[in-house]
Amino acid sequence: MRNDITRRDALALGLSAATLAATGAAAQTTSSTIKAADVAAPKLAIEKGASLRMLRPVRFVQADEDVFRANAAKFTKETGVEVKVDFVGWEDINQQTAVTSNSGAGPDIIIGFSDAPHIYVDKLIELTDVADYVGKRYGGWLPLAQRYGKKNKSDAWIGLPFGATAGPLIYRKSILQSVGFDKVPEDHAGILDLCQKLHKAGKPAGFALGNAKGDGNGFANWALWSHNASLLDEEGNVVINSKETIAALNWVKQIYPTFIAGTPSWNDVSNNRAYSSQEISLTANGVSLYFSLKNDPATKAIAEDSEHQLLPKGLAKVSPMAGLTLNAMVFKHSQYPNAAKAFLQYMLEKDQYEPWLNANSGYWSQPLAAYAEAAVWSQDPKVKLFKDTMNSTYYDGYKGPISTATGAVSADYVLIQMCASVATGAATPEAAAAEAEQRCKRYFRRQR
Amino acid sequence: MSVTTLSSPVLAQRQPNWLVRLFDYKPFLIVMCLAPAIGLLSVFLTYPLGLGIWLAFTDTTIGRRGVFVGLENFQYLLTDPLWWNAVFYSVVYTGIATFGKFALGFWLALLLNNHFPFKSILRAIILLPWIVPTVLSALAFWWIYDPQFSIISYLLVDVLHWRSGNVDFLGSPWPARFSLIAANIWRGIPFVAISLLAGLQTISPSLYEAAMLDGASAWQRFRYITFPMMMPILAIVMTFSIIFTFTDFQLVYAITRGGPVNSTHLLATLAFQRGIAGGELGEGAAIAVSMIPFLIFATLFSYFGLARRKWQQGEAND
């Protein structure tokens, strides 16, 4: 196995998620085994002369964009409705949605992230008819899709989830074996023991504790949820300052010294680079890291030696892992709401959705149960684990209702900074939890 | 001799019409000439500033129209340790970075004011850090400070073998704070150096000749000629530098996003994070408005610096 990865190799790998594109097209050729129930589609009278403008987050996999555009072109050909799709950066989509929402002008459809429809609920049209139809036709919506798609405490759909990406553990099998582990233990003491041994062996673990939207929040949520701590209770009360949180923070304080130096400054690409350059042997990441390693001859051996594993349960009953969900919204200001709904329905139908899902090589997992049979999930055993991302019962704002404030807490990195301040010794667990509680209560003051 | 009188229609023709008379009316003409400038200022300066100040007194969030809440946002900020931290670091960042930029920039300006070969090319090169887009230089520094791939760590550990482990530039509060200050100084030096160089070139060489004839040393020439003559431009450049540094956003946001442990938030980055990312537009605006007193202080600093010109010329202050 090649161990002389150069600095240049490692730097390139950190940004090479686009290499996923190479694997995308192959998955589309397999014949479909997906079953579609015979259900009557809602009657959507497409408005005369309709045209649509849509925004969605930029692709992580080139084939995502290619197939999405091809599907949109097919819709135009079949219905005569022109669809203009713009791809915008992940960091920009929230701001553009906010402007669209506040100004009442702009795109008819926006695919935002997980909680976006709950933030702009007053400006959106209901999508219940389409959601009910595709739900019945494709085996039902998975739990995470229902959580993010439906208005709180109702069966009204305000968003149509298109998929979710997860950040499970990825580790070096040979290095774990060299310190006496076959996989990462499910209990906190075992994880700590493993991380201490990895640190001693010079191949430590590393989890983002910097202001990283995906990986930082992923680690903070996992640390809390695996200790049965949560931001909210079922009624939406802020319960972050709890004995469970203190226990989680004490564990973070214990495990932090076993991490590679610098994790409090890590952003979302830092762990990719550190893992690719073999500086660390354990982290949490999306499937993009695995594919970027696999598709580069210089690092293929690292990919072969890597395994994915769901985030350890700790004290939770199931792996506490939430997925970042693509969630489509149709705005009330649209002149062509039926055309917009028809377009989303069309994109979720098997003929369009399955090739798109396969093209993403596992980066996005399906929101509808029937698509679990898609070819993408049987082509690489190391990717199969991502299939169940939307079966998760965990989400931003767990255990309470999703609201503007749950997204704000995540965007303001409140929970990450609570963990980081304890890890680095800047605050005691009690002080950090109290400060986080103050900030969260500020965000949630209007939500109840 | 016969006297002829013009008929009344002819008189009427020569009488300027009301529009001409209106434009001949001086107060109206002044108003009309100023109107475009006032309009532009109102639309592009007063309105955004006014809206920002208004938002600071409301509880507006993204996607929800707010109501007037008086000083509630400011009262909350006074209890928010993160706001106090941002005030502290904004002042430290501005103070140290401005001092650094002026010390090095003034020194560089004095060097560049001398006669030497390829002077023009060197002066152009000095401007490079200033003309590179801030985000680009921020990304470069982000790489330089990377915990695993820093070129500085590489030199110290792998080439010179002076250290056994990498330097953790951004992983703990004070190193991260100083790393950002260093990046800001690097970026700001050209502005200071070139501005002060322009000032240095306005000082008449005859003053130095006279001083040399009187036997003044190099330090005395700097102390009694260069420095006093440079005071007005120093005051202006320093005011701009303080304002630019205090309101800096891009360097910090691109390199640390306010981390680690929120230790490097400036008021500008905190205002953005709370107002835009967090959606609390009212609170974000309040944080931005809380910068105004500091900026007024910087402007007053410039005013008083300029007002001392008479003193510089040996007269009493009035």
Automatic annotation (TrEMBL), chain A:
Compartments where found: Periplasm
Keywords of the record: Periplasm, Signal, Transport
A GO cellular component annotation in the UniProt record: periplasmic space
Signal peptide interval: 1-27
Transmembrane segments: none
Keyword Lipid biosynthesis: no
Top-rank taxon, per record: Bacteria
Family: Belongs to the bacterial solute-binding protein 1 family.
Name of the protein in question: ABC transporter substrate-binding protein
Source organism: Bradyrhizobium ottawaense
Taxonomic classification: Bacteria, Pseudomonadati, Pseudomonadota, Alphaproteobacteria, Hyphomicrobiales
UniProtKB/TrEMBL annotation, chain B:
Chief location of this protein within or outside the cell: membrane
One cellular component (GO) term of this entry: plasma membrane
Membrane disposition: Multi-pass membrane protein
Membrane spanning residue stretches: 28-57, 86-112, 124-145, 185-203, 224-246, 285-306
Location of this chain's protein in the cell: Cell membrane
InterPro entries for the chain: MetI-like (IPR000515), MetI-like_sf (IPR035906)
Keyword annotations of the record: Cell membrane, Membrane, Transmembrane, Transmembrane helix, Transport
PANTHER family in UniProt: BLR7065 PROTEIN, SPERMIDINE_PUTRESCINE TRANSPORT SYSTEM PERMEASE PROTEIN
Family that this chain belongs to: Belongs to the binding-protein-dependent transport system permease family.
Protein name: Sugar ABC transporter permease
Organism: Bradyrhizobium ottawaense
